[in-house]
Amino acid sequence: MTQRALVLFAHGARAASWAAPFERLRELTQARTPDVRVSLAFLELMEPRLPELVAGLSADGVTAVTVVPIFLGQGGHVLRDLPLMVQQLRIDFPQIAIDVVEAAGENAAVLNALSDYCVGALDPALPGGV
C-alpha cells in the first residue's frame, strides 16, 4: 500500500511567528486530506528542513511525496535550490516517488483567490471582502 505525504515547502525565517500562517495552511490541508500525511518543511532558518523531513517520512514507510512550494514566484529558491535538493533526495531515497508541483503563486486558482482578496479590500461586501 502506498503511503502518501504532502509537504508544504516554505522559505523559513528567523522569527518563529513567521511560520504561523503556514501551520494554519497545513492544518486546513490536513483536515481536507485525512488519508495523507501533511507536513511543513523549510528551505532555511527553520526546522524541519526538507531533507530531514523526507528522511523521517521514509523511516515511517512513506512511498510517495508531493512537494508544494508555498512561494509566490519562481525565484532562485524554486528554480535552483529546490530542484537540486529534490535531485539529491531522489538519490538518497530511491524507494520514494517525489513529485514537485508549481509554486503556489504560479497557480491560476491561487492567483484568483489572492485577486479576490485584494478586490475585496476595496469593498467588504464583495466576495473575499475584508
How many structural domains does the protein architecture include? 1
What is the rounded distance between the termini? 44 Å
- CATH class descriptor name: Alpha Beta
Percent of residues in helices: 40-55%
Number of strands: 4
Structural class by sheet pairing and helices: alpha/beta
Task: Give me the strand/helix succession.
Answer: EHEHEHEH
How many helical elements?
4
List keywords for this structure.
130 residues, alpha/beta, Rossmann fold, 4-stranded parallel beta sheet, 4 helices, 4 strands, 41% helix
Q: Short summary of the structure?
A:
The chain is α/β, with parallel strands linked by helices and 130 residues long. It contains four helices and four strands. It has one domain: Rossmann fold.
Structure description:
The chain has helices at residues 20-32, 50-59, 76-92, 108-120; strands spanning 4-10, 37-42, 64-69, 97-100. The protein is α/β, with parallel strands linked by helices. It has one domain (4-105): Rossmann fold (3-Layer(aba) Sandwich), CATH 3.40.50. A four-stranded parallel sheet has the order 2-1-3-4, with helices on both faces. Helix 1 links the parallel strand 1 (4-10) and strand 2. The longest helix has 17 residues, at 76-92. The model has no long low-confidence stretch (mean pLDDT 90).
